[in-house]
Specification:
Elements lengths: L2 H10 L4 E5 L15 E5 L4 H12 L2 E4 L16 E6 L6 H9 L4 E4 L8 E5 L5 E5 L4
């Protein structure tokens, strides 16, 4: 439940790296990981934001429910998390900006062009590294 706080830390870090397991490694977003993109929303806005996401970008949106308590997951900022399961490849930078413009959206789980490198822990115990392409 720290989506926005994680994005703030990443945005101000001198060097940001991502560490993930092999299930998130893919050439196209969503190829392996099927749980969707998290989107932090103000609680009173989760229904209209859900409608706006599906209308504008397709796919399906679910309010993330808590496991150890009743009700939705509440972030450290007191907001809800929506999981958007998109159904096609998008121009992610444009989609990220458009989603953040929807009233009630606080932040997305898209960390576009932020990481210098991504380290993947592979199933066999090895490490695979992807570095940011120089511009």
């Amino acid at each position: 439940g720290c989506l926005t706080q994680e994005k703030i830390v990443a945005g101000y870090a001198k060097c940001f790296v991502v560490i993930a397991d092999y299930r998130k490694k893919s050439k196209s977003l969503g190829e392996q990981w099927k749980k969707g993109i998290p989107i932090e929303v103000i609680p009173m806005a989760y229904v209209p934001v859900t409608r706006a996401l599906t209308k504008n970008f397709g796919g399906a949106v679910e309010l993330r429910m808590a496991v150890s308590k009743a009700g939705p997951v509440v972030t450290d900022n007191g907001n809800f998390i929506l999981d958007w399961k998109f159904d096609k490849v998008h121009e992610w930078s444009e989609v990220n900006t458009a989603i953040k413009m929807i009233p009630g959206v606080v932040e997305t789980g898209l960390f576009i062009d932020m990481a210098e490198a991504v380290y993947f822990g592979m199933e066999d115990g090895s490490i695979s590294v992807q570095k940011k392409e120089p511009r």
